[in-house]
Amino acid sequence: MPKTQQEHEIANSRLLKAIEMIEKETEHKGLTLGELIELLGEMGHAVLILLLCLCFLQPIPLPGISTPIGIVIMISATLQFLNLPPWIPRQFRQHMISQKVLHKTAVVARKIWSKIERFLNPRLLFLTKTPTFRFINLVLIIISAFLLALPLPIPFTNTVPSIVILSIVFAQLEEDGFSILFAYFMTFVMSIFFYSLGAGIWTFAQRPWASLL
């Protein structure tokens, strides 16, 4: 069944509450990943993944934090699919996210949600509810999170996978199949982007050997 107005308001208030909690907790200090999971765990996997992704919506890559966050997103998406509570490996719990990054993430989250929330509506529900498409969406999040986790110091290598993940997460929060279709389109764009990047790196790596031959 489509979400009722009450359910929509609950999802909306849950995200805004998570943003307020981050703003309050990071007023003077950063948080470890473990602390962030404990803080947002009760909000649900979708809110957690969304807020973890938002700090990558800028062209400059963040290789220092992209790898652990990418792995946490893969784990959280899988646990969500299996209806299990949030959890991350012990070795990532002490990884620090700076106060500046977290505060900026909260600000960006509030701005983005205020602009797009009114455009998200329950539609094309088979893309968000049927087991087949739920599994496909999980696979796309895992692939995107894996690419996000790669420590590549190249502009937009964090941004493009984040857009795919965020599109799917927004669709999950509001049961909006149109957002899933946008995620599929961005997956195609992401495939071309990383294929071109890989081909360029391979061509560049071959140049010294070609000159020797």
Task: Characterise the protein shown here.
The chain is mainly alpha-helical. The chain has 9 helices and 2 strands. The protein has a two-stranded antiparallel sheet. The termini are far apart. About 35% of the residues are buried.
Give the topology.
Layout: H1 5-25, E1 31-32, H2 33-40, H3 45-54, H4 63-81, E2 96-97, H5 99-116, H6 126-129, H7 131-149, H8 159-174, H9 177-212
Antiparallel strand pairs: 1-2
Helix pairs in contact: 1-5, 3-4, 3-8, 4-7, 7-8, 8-9
Distance between the termini: 65 Å
The biggest beta sheet is recorded as: 2 strands, antiparallel
Evaluate the radius of gyration: 18 Å
Judged by helices, strands and strand pairing, the structural class is mainly alpha
| Count of DSSP H/I helices | 9
Please state the average pLDDT score: 82
Shape: globular
| Low-confidence segments | none
- Secondary structure tally: strands: 2
Order of helices and strands: HEHHHEHHHHH
Beta-strand fraction estimate: under 5%
Strand ordering within the main sheet: 1-2
- Helical percent range? over 70%
